[in-house]
Amino acid sequence: MNRLFITFTGCLSALLLSTSAYAAKVTVSIPPLAGIIAPLLDEDDTLEVILKSGVSPHGFQLRPSHMMAVANSDLVVTVGFGADTWLQKALKSYKGAQVNMADLSRMRLYSVRRGGVWQAAEIGGHDHEKAADMSGVDPHLWTAASNAIEVVIEVSDQLIALSPEKTKVITERRDKWLARIKQVDHEVFMVLNPVSRTPYLVLHDAFQYFEKRYLMTVVGSISLNPEIAPSLKRVFELRERIEKDEISCVFKEPQFSDKRVQPVVDGLNVKVGQLDPMGINYDADGRATGYLLYDDFLKQTALQFVNCLADK
Q1: DSSP string covering 87-135, please?
Q2: Is beta strand 116-117 parallel, antiparallel or unpaired with respect to 218-221?
Q3: Rounded-to-integer distance, Cα 14 and Cα 275, Å
Q4: Whole-angstrom Cα distance, residue 290 to residue 6?
Q5: Contact 162, 50 (CB under 8 A)
Q6: Where are the alpha helices (DSSP H) in the chain?
Q7: What value, to the nearest 5°, has the Cα angle with vertex 289 and ends 283 and 156?
Q8: Per-residue pLDDT averaged across 21-31, rounded?
C-alpha cells in the first residue's frame, strides 16, 4: 500500500512538474525580429510574426487578426517606430510585456539620410541621441549585430520573468546564441573587407547600421521611400554619379518592383545586386518561405554584397 502510494505521488509530482513549465506566446512586428529571438524559445512556445514574409512594411495596415494576436501575447517585440509604426497605436492598450528596440539604453541610433547622392557628412553620419520624436532616426536598427545582441539580452530577461523555472535553460540558450552572433559578426567583417572600399548605390537606405559596422562605401540611395518612384532629376543625378565614380553595383530589394532601379542603370556598365533588409528566405522559384535566423541574415547579406561588388 505504501509502495503504491509512493509510486502514485511520484507520478503525480512528475506530471505536475511537466505541466508547470509556462509556454510563452511571443509576437514580433517584422521578420528580422523573429530571426533574432527564435533561438531563445522552447518548442512549446509560439512565435507570431505580424508582417508576413515577402510583404513590405511600407504602407502596411493591421487587420483584426493581427490585433487579436497582439492581445493574446505574453510578450510583444517591436522596433518601436518607423518600420513598425503601424503597430504602435495598437500597443497603447496592450498590458503584457513589451520590448521596443528604440527604448533599449545601449541601442545605437543613426540619423536618416535623404535619398539621392549623399555628401561626405551624411555618409559618415553620427550617433543620434534618444528623444521622444524619432522621426529623424534611421529605423533599420536590426541590421547592426550590436543592436541585435541588445534585443537578445532583453528578450531573454523577459522570458525568464515569464518562466522563472526556465532560468537555467533560457540563460544557456542566450549565451550560446550570443556567442554565435558574435562569431558570425567577426566572419562577416573578414569576408567584406576586400570589397568594403568599392562604391555602390542602394534602392533605399536600409543598411546604414550594417554599412557602418563593416566600413562599407555606400554613395547614395535611389529613393527615400521605395514605394515612390524617383524624380527624373534624381535619376539623372544618380546616372551621372555612376559614370563619374565608376560605381560597379546598384542594389534592388525583393519586396519592390525592378522598375524602381531600371531607369538608373539602363545602358550603363553597372551590375544589379539584391539586398533584403527583411531577412526573408526564398526558394529556387523566388517565393518567400519564412524568416532567416539572424546569423544567416548576416551571412546572406554579406554574400549579396560580395557577389555584386567583387571583381569577377
Answers
A1: HHTGGGG--SEEEEGGG-TT---BB---SEEPPHHHHH--B----S--T
A2: antiparallel
A3: 50
A4: 49
A5: no
A6: 2-20, 31-37, 64-71, 85-88, 120-124, 145-162, 167-192, 208-213, 232-245, 262-265, 294-309
A7: 130
A8: 90
Beta bridge partners of residue 79, listed in sequence order: none
Given this model, what pLDDT does residue 284 score? 79
The Cα–Cα gap between 288 and 279 comes to: 10
Q: Which of 216, 204, 307 is nearest to 264 (CA)?
A: 204
- Beta bridge partner(s), residue 46: 25
State the Cα–Cα distance between residues 192 and 294, nearest whole angstrom: 17
**In terms of DSSP H, where are the helices of 254-293?**
262-265
Q: State the residue for C-alpha cell 537578445.
A: 152
Q: Which amino acid type is present at position 184?
A: V
61: exposed, middle or buried (Cβ count in 10 Å: 0-12, 13-18, 19+): exposed
Looking at the predicted structure, is the pLDDT value of residue 17 above 90? no
In this prediction, residue 5 has a pLDDT band, given cuts at 50, 70 and 90, of very low
Total residues found in the chain within this entry: 312
